[in-house]
Design a protein that fits this description.
By secondary structure, this protein is an alpha+beta fold. The chain has a single domain, classed as Gcn5-related N-acetyltransferase (GNAT) (Aminopeptidase). Strands 1-2-3-4-5 form a five-stranded mixed beta sheet.
Length: 131
C-alpha cells in the first residue's frame, strides 16, 4: 500500500466529512470544511491511498509563530501503520517552513503514546476552560 501526503491537498467536503465522522464517532454533519480551513488555517495535510482520502490533520495558527494541530484522523482500516505520525511530521515540517516556532496539540489521555512517542511532542502545562 502506498500513501501519498499532500500539504493543503485538494479534497472534497463530503470525503473529509465522512472521514471525520468515522474517526470521531459522530454522524456526518455536512460541514463546509473548505471554507473553515481556508479562513482559519495555516494549512492541512491530506493522506491518500488508491481508495481516496485516508488521513487528515488541520494546522490552525495565530498568524505568527504558533501553530495548532486539530482534527488528526486516520481511517480505521489503516490505523497503527504510521499514517498519523506521517501526517504530523508533514504538518510540523510545513509549519516550520512558514516560520512557526511552536506546534501545539491538545488531546485526550489515551492518545498520549501517539503524540508523545510516535510524534515527538513534549508534555507541557496548559489550561482549559470548557465553554
Amino acid at each position: 500500500m502506498t500513501v501519498r501526503y499532500e500539504w493543503r491537498g485538494d479534497f472534497d467536503n463530503g470525503s473529509l466529512d465522512a472521514l471525520h465522522a468515522e474517526g470521531f464517532g459522530h454522524p456526518p454533519d455536512n460541514a463546509d470544511w473548505r471554507a473553515q480551513l481556508e479562513g482559519h488555517s495555516l494549512g492541512w495535510v491530506c493522506a491518500w491511498d488508491e481508495g481516496g482520502l485516508v488521513g487528515f490533520v488541520n494546522v490552525a495558527w495565530d498568524g505568527g509563530v504558533h501553530a495548532f494541530v486539530l482534527d488528526t484522523v486516520v481511517a480505521r482500516r489503516l490505523r497503527t501503520r504510521g499514517i498519523g505520525a506521517a501526517l504530523i511530521d508533514t504538518a510540523a515540517r510545513e509549519a516550520r517552513a512558514a516560520n512557526c516556532e511552536w506546534l501545539h496539540v491538545d488531546f485526550e489521555d489515551h492518545l498520549g503514546p501517539f503524540y508523545f512517542d510516535a510524534c515527538g511532542f513534549r508534555p507541557t502545562s496548559a489550561g482549559l476552560i470548557a465553554l
